[in-house]
Amino acid sequence: MKIVIIGAGIAGLTAGIALKKFGYNVIIYEQVKEIRPVGAAISLWPNGVKCLNYLGLKEKVAALGGQMDHLSYVDGIHGDVMTAFSLMPLIQDSGQRPYPVSRAELQRMLMDEFGHENIHLGTKVIALEEHKNSVHFTFEDGRKDSADLLIGADGTHSMTRRYVLGEQVSRRYAGYVNWNGLVKASEEIAPQYQWTTYVADGKRVSLMPVSDGRFYFFFDVPLPVGLENNKQTYRSDLEDYFEGWCPQVQRLIQNIDVEKTNRVEIHDIEPFLKFYKGHVVLIGDAAHSTTPDIGQGGCQAMEDAIYLARALQVNSLGIVDALSRYQSKRNERAKEMVLRARKRCDITHMKDSDITQAWYSELRKEKGENIMKGILSNIIGNVLD
């Protein structure tokens, strides 16, 4: 069976690795000429890490991951700790450490594992159609190809989603802008082995340890969509948005490299349950584009990839039957993750000030059990439980 994957992001590469291990002939087409991951880093919670462990990448992903032993929320204005606790109960319950990792390093590792010779960059698919039991597609330069199965891992602006659903769905602005990047870890900013989040006024500043003594950082600010995006003003913009915040946040702003900092307007897409049509199937953001507020976007993409590969391998009633089983296993879980992230987004970013202030008050009483219970509820139910 020849399988073509559209998109060389985390979803497409994970699916490609899994399918190759099962003996399939897999080719990946990616429209960009140079891979530049969107975002500086990614939170791999135990369900995502287990997917990579399953593919034989346990040591490699562990080498990329930061050691995150504790979690803490801090008052962004006054700098006092609202709650802090060990993550060891969560690690023990789930059977795996979470790993914040550099997105570029993760993607490079996945590309190396899949094999660069079967990744074709600068090849944009502009049209596709099905003939009997094969999918035929056309590239922007006029070339054509075909496959027994086409996997759409082409992200939030997916062309294959339009084919599967029969319409182009609109993205929904979540109401906030995110600046993110990597910075040298410093105890003057946050404890090195802790996920630290400063909160106040519906804004958020978060730091997570990644490998090689670095923090992944991000700033969230509720803002109108469509404001000017100018790297030269990133530092001054953040100084304005976080004026009066505690010294740790001010040090972080001064320490960032604005040229290597990303600015993203956060969107999601209304969940839908149709993940395939004929011999075309969706995975990752193409199937369930979400906000990053519960850290499950990449993890759910990996779950998609593993379950799809297993469905194709273990079932013998044909491609469509396997795709139907994949859809019924994944669509409700993915929908729930999108909606949970949306709910967390609204609480965190003060869509309703009373609800957000109540959350801040709850954080000061939190001992860790409720937060870890919430994280575990996202992890449980994955394909490798």
TrEMBL record:
Alphabetically ordered keywords of this record: FAD, Flavoprotein, Monooxygenase, NAD, Oxidoreductase, Purine metabolism
Pathway note: Purine metabolism; urate degradation
SUPFAM superfamilies in the cross-refs: FAD/NAD(P)-binding domain (SSF51905)
Cofactor(s) needed by this chain: FAD
Domain of life: Bacteria
Domain (FAD-binding) ranges: 2-340
Reactions mediated catalytically: urate + NADH + O2 + H(+) = 5-hydroxyisourate + NAD(+) + H2O
Enzyme Commission no: 1.14.13.113
UniProt-listed InterPro entries: FAD-bd, FAD-dep_Monooxygenase_BioMet, FAD/NAD-bd_sf, HpxO
Similarity comment: family membership: Belongs to the FAD-dependent urate hydroxylase family.
Entry protein name: FAD-dependent urate hydroxylase
